[in-house]
Amino acid sequence: WSHGFLSTQDMSTLIQHEKMGVSGQLCGNMVETRRGGFVVELKKPLKKGDRIRIQPRSGESTTAVTITKMAVDGKLTNAGRRGEKVFIYYTQEVPSDGIVYKIGAVTEDKTNQLAELPLYQSKNGIDLDISVYPNGLNVKVLSHPDKPVWMSKMVIDKAQKRALDNAALAAGFSETRLAKYKLGKVTSKIKGELFLPAGVLKKIRREFWEWAEEHLDQIEMINTDQVLLEQYIADYENLVPANASNEKESCYTVAKGDQPKKKNTVIVNSVFDCNKKTDEVMLPHFCSELRLESLERRIQEAYDLGVRRFRVTAMYQIQMLKKYNDIEMVGSYPLPVLNSAATQELKEYGFSRVQAWLELEKDQFEAFIARSQLPVELYRYGRPYLYATRADVHVEGHVSDNRGIEFTVEQNKAMAVNYIYPIQVLSIPKMENTVDFFDLSHAWWNEKNTTQFNLEHVLK
Length: 460
Known about the structure:
By secondary structure, this protein is an alpha/beta fold. The protein has helices at residues 8-14, 111-116, 166-172, 198-215, 224-237, 292-304, 316-320, 340-349, 362-371, and strands at 25-34, 37-42, 46-47, 51-55, 64-66, 70-72, 75-77, 79-80, 85-89, 99-104, 124-133, 136-141, 149-153, 181-190, 250-252, 266-270, 280-282, 309-312, 328-331, 351-355, 376-382, 387-389, 397-400, 406-412, 417-422, 425-427, 435-439, 450-451.
């Protein structure tokens, strides 16, 4: 186990390459393929029943293999040890130059135990309104179409010390012991300082749920959450898309990087590097509690310089900008905005524009643009980071993976965050009814090695 990011030492050991991960645990290399199987030189032990993945060095994917039969030096075995060359029986074709990852270990077969478990039955939540008086208790079933009332008449004494409260009342009714029903939302009112012993409350609860089982069993409950959802859907259907045709393009720049081509381009700078020429500032997606005050000062400095448009990259920034009444907020990467429901929510917060999530396919972009409640900005050119972590990745600069795909690792020492950037620059064509955004913070104009990411294909 790990402390995660608790200390510098913890961050340096958080990424453990020898442990099982999403891609599996590296356990060997392909030596050769033979008729009826293949030979692997092991770096880690493998057992019969383990699942492995053979990754060709070309980067293409291949199917997983479950080891059903294996041999060492021509003799069948149940396990192979580190350093051994193991023949794994397999009838289908596999890449001869692959890297072998272990993606699953032998587990105990619990099929019989699972078969004996009772079938799951969903429970209907029953919303209640409970009233307690000195002469009794009433329970109204709010989620029932007819809202029936169950009553229990009794004398309830005044409390000497511990008076009954709403939390104790709701907790007292929470255990139903019924297969079909469970307690939903509870509202309650207690007239006066009353005392209800736990044993009496338990008896009342049991009597109520027995009554509920008998009288409510054949009636379909009203799902209050479903009613709200249906209302939201109805409101959503009436939304009118926004128009972005009159907006100017924006360009994110840094001091030593390329600058915009057009004179009327809106200049975007980091909140840490803004100056008198800055039109908009980009806020940092990561900011710990210890740096909030410093960031607030930077925002105030930008405001004092005349900046009135702030690019929000994380939701915490909305709270920091609330005190400014004459500013605009623009959603910007890595804030994930990819559907019109998100734009409707951000519109309520006061956003004036959103940047579409840059990994969408073309048809998803078009559908989003057509329904967005805010003007949509398109990340048309730049080198966005693919991964950010505070763990020490033990490398900086140019790197490549086992597939030969190249990346750049950059350490932002001010925020103690490591970023992984692609070698290729994202470059996609203009789309109708969108605002252009060009990111020159990690790219130069007219780079030749470009990609459209997911624009023309669907991830599978």
